[in-house]
Amino acid sequence: MRPPVDVCVLILSLSAPGVLKAMDNIPALQEPLPILGMGMFVLGLVSLLLLLTVRNQKKVDPLFYVFAGFSFTCMVGLTNALEQDGFISGFMAFYLKMGEPHLRTAYAVMMSYWDGIVHLLLFLTIIHRMFKGKSYRSLGLLWAGSSIGHQIVHIPGVVIGKYGSNIQPAFWRNVPFFLLPFWVASLLFSRPREMPVITADKIIAEQKKGLLSRPVDLLLSLLLLGAMAFSVFRGFVVLDCPLDTCFTYVYQYEPYLKDPVGFPRVTMLVYFFYALPLLTVFTYGLRTPGCSWMLDWTIFFAGAMAQTQWCHIGASLHSRTPFTYRVPADKWWPVITLNVLLVAAPALLALRCCNNPAYFLKPVPEGQTNNEKKKN
Fold first, then answer.
1. pTM metric for this prediction
2. Partners of 290 in beta bridges
3. DSSP letter assigned to residue 375
4. H/E run at residue 195
5. Angle formed by the axes of helices 263-270 and 215-238, to 10°?
6. pLDDT tens-digit series, residues 49-61
7. How far apart are CA 244 and CA 5, in angstroms?
8. Distance between CA 40 and CA 45 in Å, rounded?
């Protein structure tokens, strides 16, 4: 009896450390160009094995190959994180020297943990639901947001940071991993959203309520405003604003923002130029009924903020970050609390939109029943 497809993908992913171990023992494969070439060959071989895995399936969603292929790279990331933290050894030394030396930084270690645990679990869940005929659209959007958030910090951070002068050919393997999540997101956004029908009376009743009559939405609006203010403030900090408040914050509270690796600076600029406008339109969506786009974009944004904040918070405390750039022990609680709230606000907003979407829907004809499904 053939095992389920998600189990096959997991087994294939678990072979990644073996590939790394073999390359670590073959000197000819430890030069920059051979590392890139071998990486492309292995990904091609993985794609072939995936085709063979589903050859008997009548219809295969093209996104399966993306999710399953990324699952293999997740194990590479987890292997790197475990080796950098001293749990294993003998897998990544050659790659860190001649491939991507920035992967030894605290930010990259936290990024690798997220990739190897959260993303891998998402992929396996999505693939399981895909072949069971169940919807995976929301999980896919969560991953797309997380992956795009990961890459728009990772790639520019390497280029402008202290590792920018030592970029090896293997670094450019990240280009397809940067582009594919955008393609996946565009496909998922274009697919219809399935959700139980809510009666027209309930929708009308919810949309008649003002913000003050919806205490949860009022609280979320205040959290979003706080997140906006914090994003603006830290954007000014990394742009070297001369105000005394900015100077005090970066040197006494969050010196990690000045770490020359480049990742914290890029993260704050991404928040300033991309997260801030989204937070603004989400605040508008909580005040204006019928904004159905909130149901998708809040999930996407929650994924992006969860990934970037996990890496930022973790790296600011990690032992691989030089001591002078870590959060001071006496300022740990205020800094971490503010950073946790920055990731909690989008997550809570996404949960609110998913659990009680009536305010964001357009009125439904009264003839429909609650047992029907509506494509919104």
1. 0.92
2. none
3. E
4. strand 194-196
5. 130
6. 999 888 888 888 9
7. 57
8. 9
